[in-house]
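Proteins fold reproducibly. Next comes a concrete instance:

***
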Amino acid sequence: MPFGDTIVALSTPAGEAALALVRLSGPDCERLGRDCFGPKWEPTPRMAQLVKHKSLSGNTLDQCIALYFADDASYTGEPMLELSLHGSPLVVQLVLEDLLARGCRMAEAGEFTKTAFTNGKLDLSQAEAVADLIHARSTRALQVAQRQLAGAIGKQMDAYTQRLLRVQAELEAYIDFPEEDLPEEDQSGPISALQALTGDIKHLIDTQHYTTLLHEGVQTVILGAPNAGKSSLLNWLAGQDRVIVSATPGTTRDVVSERVVVDDYVLQLMDTAGLHTSADELERLGMEKTIQWLDKADFFLVVIDSAAPSPTLPQAVLDKVQAANALVIENKGDLPDSTDKTDFLPDCRHIRLSLKTGKGCEHLKSALTEALSAGHIVPNDDELVVSARHAAALTRAVEALETTLLRLTEGAPPELAASDLRLAVEAFGEVVGKIDNEVMLDQLFASFCIGK
């Protein structure tokens, strides 16, 4: 933001609504309030006031609620003014046009949050969490974003930095005070500390794969023989007839996708062609697509007909389906020939039900949630999750630490090891934005919505 600018934006979705929120941030908020609401208006911080917004020509544009924030207690670290207007698109347009005519500038995407970061109200990982919070599609994604917004990643980087600085101070003592009466240099302590730190950072980097699962959903492939009930399962979980269900085997020829929410999780369900031996060319192509989806899947729902002999799955499926990533659905439990099939994929969790009558389906979602939790498909409640940007910076830190360990092991001068450690500290700083990179910041905040 250029120095002295006061920005304005609509912070609620465009369109008709009960209310619309317009936000302003910048040094002119107090002046603009008096100009729009009258000279008697007092900018009492954090006190909602009923006011009439009048245009430059003196016409009343709306009766609204004005809420003023002083710079020391605002989201952006600057004076802010929030106007709760009636949610008419015309009212919003007239108010915005009036504020622009009075000297405001339309905010760019993410500019409010970028200003908060620039003014030290948020570190960069917290700023990113704002966007994650807005786009969260599941309770678990929301929990992760809230934890990050509270500064959990920044605190972790501080803890890593302190551990690293203790090792660095020990090494640099021998550099800065070579003539002092220091104990004989022993590299075993720094090496052990750096190895432990490197292991912890690698574990944190590994959580990057959770990001896609939380944002896009757990890629869940529904497998099984024809007419086992795969499409019925997708329809039941989706709460609608998303897929044609027929007693004729081979109805599903292509992959059908549907996103559903199951308790704390978002699942991207893929209903696939039935797996069996077929001379039909279209069915064969459909099964080939099913096999191709195996490598993309995070979780499997294996549907079997409990009134028929247990199916024989292709080896490609057996190589992928494991106890940690699959739930077996024993369907058609309402039929008289239905039998227990726990001997089929015995290491996996099983649930017996009838998708036709609904018997047993009340336990399906809880069984699915338990299977996802037990397989550690998504992060634990207290686990940090890093983004691709965080992981890239942390990978650079690991590379610097591994170089340091190699130098210490080979008996290289401590000056070289200390230099590598400084690179690791800088990498930690990149995660929370302590290293200035204007191009990276512009690109990051451009992905935010206007008004945030």
About this structure: Residues 181-185, 244-253 have pLDDT under 50 and may be disordered. The first helix runs from residue 29 to 37. The first strand starts at residue 7 and ends at 10. Residues 7-120 form a domain with the Gyrase A; domain 2 fold (CATH 3.30.1360.120).
